[in-house]
């Protein structure tokens, strides 16, 4: 009996499977594998480029917040910010556009969207600081913020490439970075947070007229956003809620300015958290 059991326990020898390298299905799946690997590698490269854009945009925003009327440094800071933003367009966004040449940009939207939104926030904040007169109490201004089509026009690139080594004829390779309109809207919505910070900083430096002007700008911006409806964009509702909080904080600052006058800077904000329980019929 023991001999029979030992015979049964002996492992079976597996037969070697012969793979036909010329099998059409096998060749097709290998081609799909190479295509997916290339797509994933390209996606990761775009994520890294987008991260560099985000970091530089945040630094430019921090630079713009250093503008102070007491230091008389507005023109110098704006010039530096303009040069750095143009460099981001010419270098960083060009690299992203090169990666997506002749490809569907929506396939890589999740990779470049964070950097694009942060850049739009920095660019629009720079334009606001450049074209807005801090001493004005009016919103009427000939200068306007660049829309997504104007930014799209700045992100057009041309490269020269040789057609033939013998003839050495040069051919122009034209490509562009795709500025998605919905990403532009999301980027502009983030501007409200920077305007709110500018409003609070202006209160500390005694620029009460700037506080009142920024509050009006935020109210108009919020009024426009609550009427928007972008299908399949859950992020917009979250950003509108954040914008509402920024508006309430700016209004709290203006309340202190109106009530306390010149002593508002000493008192600061009356409350750290605005009353977000007010029902406006939107949420």
UniProtKB/TrEMBL annotation:
Location in the cell: Cytoplasm; Nucleus
Coarse class of the protein's main subcellular location: cytoplasm
MF-aspect GO terms: metal ion binding; sequence-specific DNA binding
Keyword Amino-acid biosynthesis: no
One Pfam family hit: Translin
InterPro entries recorded: Translin_C, Translin_fam, Translin_N, Translin_sf
One GO cellular component, as annotated: nucleus
Keyword terms: Coiled coil, Cytoplasm, Magnesium, Metal-binding, Nucleus
Residues at which Mg(2+) binds: 121, 194
Coiled coil regions, renumbered to chain: 64-91
Similarity comment text for this entry: Belongs to the translin family.
Name of the molecule in the record: Translin-associated protein X
